[in-house]
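We now fix the convention by which a protein and its fold are recorded. The integers have meaning only within a learned vocabulary of local backbone shapes. A complete example follows; check for yourself that the lines match position by position.
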Amino acid sequence: MSEHMPADTTSALDELVGNAVAHIPGAAYAGITVVARRGEEITTPAATGEHPRTLDALQHKHHQGPCYAAATEHDSYFISDLHTEERWPAFRSDAMAHTPIRSIASFTLFTTRDTVGALNLYAVEPDAFGQQSRDLGYVFAAHAAVVWAALQRTEQFQSALASRDIIGQAKGMVMERYNLDAIQAFELLRRLSQDSNTRIFDIADRLVRADHPPSPGGLP
């Protein structure tokens, strides 16, 4: 596992699942499953090969399976042999038909307001994940949770910067057009926001897109 996190946290997720395959005994494939709380949509932000993505798609289809359960039920699940597995029968049938995977280890990653996630290991042989593999899986899952949190913070920070830039541009347009200082220009935007029950960012975005500032009496 890398001693430091790459600047690009998306690449870090790809690196992490690759390292999981390289360092966890028995793992032939690995992937990260993310389940949205609304609509229960399942996505695969990182995976080695196509089998993890295929298995996530099948779990999305049936709303059942070890990766789905690990994400939504906040626990870890292990399949020693998919051929004899009795849980999640619809998923099991399709997984046997569409992939060579026989062993699966799924570890809960994180829970946020909007998403839940799991780190999953896969093997084509039955009984591939012993205690050492499971212990290492928990370690990699903890690291993946840190990487995911960093990714979310980066996206939020970039969004905040973009919002601040748009509001700054709109404020500058109002200052120039109406010969106002910065405080007066922002107060005008704030008043327009309150009067129209619209976020300041949305007011600013409309102004910048139209390149036409409002009159002091209201929106154009």
Q: What stands out?
A: The helical segments are 9-23, 51-62, 66-72, 89-98, 131-178, 182-196, 200-210.
